[in-house]
Specification:
Elements: E1 9-11, H1 31-40, H2 95-101, H3 123-128, H4 148-157, E2 168-170, H5 179-186, E3 191-195, H6 202-205, H7 212-222, E4 226-230, H8 242-255
Parallel strand pairs: 2-3, 3-4
Antiparallel strand pairs: 1-2
The structure holds the ligand O=c1ccn([C@@H]2O[C@H](COP(=O)(O)O)[C@@H](O)[C@H]2O)c(=O)[nH]1.
Protein name: Metallo-beta-lactamase domain-containing protein
Pfam families: Lactamase_B_2
Biased composition (Polar residues): 130-157
């Protein structure tokens, strides 16, 4: 099998379809738009054709002034540039967001992955109980042993505000293919959930699963503002480890000069309330 298999879902509030964005950004376009245009000029890996209409509609109307990618006037983001995290509607910026903007990392231990690539939160618990705490840092630590709900509530409250009506892209399982940029042309995506695991050995896995570097390229192709890695940290399904996946993601992020704040690693069981509510 040498054909990438692909899929994914656009998740957005009810709203009308929008016109496809132009392939080349106009002069003076935002950084985000330039990224979109640049990726459209790149060679594809397999030249596979793609019918974006199959992806279905959606983009939503947002409130005036709301920084939703999907709803900004004229279909363009107006409130932020990449790296700028939008303030809440009342103009305040959560303290942790300020810390991130000041250069502190939001990856690290709270990602729930130890140096050997082992999942450090209680996997079985996290899988069955959405409110399970990421404070269970080792396989021997139980969630009951920590004051988990307070720590979890605190870290959840500090995640960035996206907008009141965000558009999400969930890529599912996918190899790298040119459809990512078409999806980006069709939808103004706020948050892209991209797979970064189960990619080795590449000769065998590449049709189904992107590498972390390809996931980043796909993220850039879609023009999304935020990247949430997924499909890597619960089970070891291939030769790679969660630690390797996160390390390669971080290296790739730096190589692309993607702002740290745009990559949001969610520990097991944690929630990111995109609308800040
Ligand atoms: O490297 C990986 C790959 C996947 N997972 C998680 O396993 C299940 C099943 O994934 P499939 O897409 O059906 O293969 C899902 O929860 C993935 O997130 C993983 O933990 N590590």
């Amino acid at each position: 099998m040498n054909r990438s298999h692909w899929g994914g879902w656009i998740i957005a509030p009810a709203g009308g379809k929008r016109e496809a964005a132009p392939l080349s950004p106009p002069p003076g376009a935002t950084v985000q738009e330039r990224l979109r245009g640049a990726s459209a000029d790149q060679e594809t890996r397999d030249g596979e054709s793609y019918d974006a209409a199959e992806q279905g509609p959606v983009s939503a109307e947002a409130k005036p002034g709301d920084p939703c990618a999907s709803g900004a006037p004229g279909g363009h983001r107006t409130a932020t540039e990449p790296g700028e995290v939008p303030a809440r509607p009342d103009g305040t910026v959560p303290p942790a967001v300020r810390a991130l903007q000041a250069g502190e990392t939001h990856a690290g231990p709270e990602s729930g992955i130890d140096e050997q690539g082992a999942v450090t939160s209680d996997v079985s618990d996290a899988a069955t109980r959405p409110n399970a705490s990421s404070e269970a840092r080792t396989p021997r630590t139980t969630n009951e042993a920590v004051t988990s709900s307070e720590a979890k509530a605190s870290s959840e409250a500090q995640r960035p505000f996206v907008c009141t009506a965000p558009t999400l892209y969930f890529a599912g399982d996918s190899g790298y293919f040119q459809g990512f940029r078409e999806i980006g042309r069709r939808h103004k995506i706020d948050v892209a959930l991209m797979p970064i695991g189960a990619y080795e050995p590449e000769y065998f896995m590449s049709p189904q699963h992107v590498t972390p570097e390809q996931a980043l390229q796909a993220f850039l192709d879609t023009g999304a503002t935020w990247f949430v890695p997924m499909h890597y940290g619960s089970f070891k399904l291939a030769d790679d480890t969660p630690r390797e996946a996160l390390d390669r993601l971080e290296s790739g992020r730096r190589a692309h000069a993607i702002e740290e704040t745009r990559v949001v690693i969610l520990p097991h069981g944690e929630t990111w309330r995109l609308s800040g509510e």
